[in-house]
Each structure stands twice: as C-alpha cells, then as structure tokens.
C-alpha cells in the first residue's frame, strides 16, 4: 500500500510520517476528514490543508467524495461575481496595508480587518448600531496587538468617515484611504474577505461549530500549493490548531512567495475581468453632466460632477436634489 512512498516514510515519537505529514490509520480517517472540513472551505482548500498536515493512500479521492456530499456546503454555494475587479498593489511585507469594513450576519454586526499581504483576517463581533467610538476602540485594540499599518483602506460610510476615525488615524500615524460605499469593487479585497468570512460563519452556525475554531482553521490553511497559510505569512511561523499536532517551521524564500502572490493576483484579475470592459472608462471633469444609477430603482438620474475624491475612479457628484454623493466610475 505504501510501496510507492516508502522512501519518504519515517518514524518519530510514535507517529509514522510521510515527509512532514502524519500518516493516518484507516480507523481515524473519517474523523480526520471531518476535522479537515471543519471550516467548510472549498474542496481545493481542504486538500491544501491536508497536504500540509496528514496523509493516507487516496486521501484526495476521499476529500472529494466527502466535500461533494457535504449538505451544508451544497446549501451555501457562492454566486459567481460578474463585476470587474479593481486590482490593488501588493505590499512587500505583512500588515503594511489592511482593509476594514463592517458586515451584518445573523442579526449582528461584525468588524473585519484583513491584511492585504497575508490575507489574514481579524474578525470581531460588535453590538448592532455601534457608534463610531466603539469601532475606533476595537480597531485601536487590534492595532495595539498586531502593530500599526502604514495604510488602512475602508469605504466612506459614517463609521470610517467620522471625525473620531480621522483623529484616530492622525494620532496613530497611519494613512486612511476611502472608497465609495456604493461601489465595493473599490475595496474588492475586503469584499472578497467578507464573502468568505460570512460563508464559513454561516456553515459554522449550521454545523454547531464555534466561529473561533472555523476562523482558526481558515487562517491555518495554505493559500495555494506554493503560498503558505495567512497565519504563517503574517507571523513567520505555523500556529497550532486542533488538526496540526506536529509543528514545523521551515524556512521559505520570501522572494519566491512574493512572486507567487503576484501571479495569483494576476490570475484572479483575469478570471474576474472576463466579462468586464477591456479598458478603463475615460476620466470625468469638473462640471460634467452625467447619469447616476439609482441603487434602489435601477433608473439613471442626472447629476453634476463636483470634484474628484481620494482614491482611483472615485468622484463627488451633486444630484438634482442638491445632495452630494460619492461614487466610483465603473
């Protein structure tokens, strides 16, 4: 059964290893499959987590069968994204640029702060309708723990455009860049993070698993076959999880990892932009009359461009009722 991998097998501390993977006996394989799929990540991600931790003959086949038969995953399959992707610059180090946003789930509000480099998410449950001061206080606590990034990207909703948040950015010395709330593609990275977080939290609730444990599994799962997990990219080491019982901290070439992250982002953009415009729309000028789509009715209403806002493709527009709106060209 193990003849093809016999040269990779070793014995250490009562465990049989294939390289750095623990060889799992048949009697425990079903339980390990359940642990691998705790966060209900997609089949590819589940295989990556297994490749990083455990082994048995035909494990990939068993993972495919297990994930395909998961009723919770079948119920929460994602819709395909059709809008064009706005590509962001990749930082050269962890926790240099982070995105942040609020989202609603299960009748509660959550705050997410995610690292653009490592994709590591920090997710905090907050009381609904929390004032801006609460958001600032939680963010301050996170930055006190992880360090102050050089730039924070958010949309322009009240919590992040408030005087309190501007003073917080000034006092703590980070650049705050905002995007239009009507166009989440402006902060597409954090929107994708939110979709993933909401999906695994929904599955966690349905399966009776705590949010903390599914987030831990997600953070410990390699991003791709050549890019380590978010936790390892951020912290420079593998972190312990219920599945990972034998920690190894291999040295990895940072230049090679950065090149792999760049290639992955380019592949993502090609995929998401298949149905998008081939080139960007021309820039607008002050005083130009335009049509703005009403998000409620879908109709196109007249407006006049007031000025360009901070951030690529973002403009301040005045509608016929005299209200100034911030919108992103797309």
CATH architecture field of the largest domain = 2-Layer Sandwich
Distance between the termini: 56 Å
Shape: elongated
Contiguous low-pLDDT stretches (5 residues minimum) are none
Question: What letter string, H or E per element, gives the SSE order?
Answer: EEEHHEHHEEEHEHHEHHHHEEEE
**DSSP strand content:** 15-25%
Average of pLDDT: 82
**Sheet with most strands:** 5 strands, mixed
**Strand segment tally:** 13
Q: Can you tell me the number of structural domains? A: 3
Sheet with most strands: strand arrangement: 7-6-5-8-9
What can be said about this structure in brief?
This protein is an alpha+beta fold and 330 residues long.
Q: Which key terms come to mind for this protein?
A:
five-stranded mixed β-sheet, 330 residues, elongated, 13 strands, 3 domains, 11 helices, alpha+beta, Nucleotidyltransferase, domain 5, Endonuclease III, domain 1
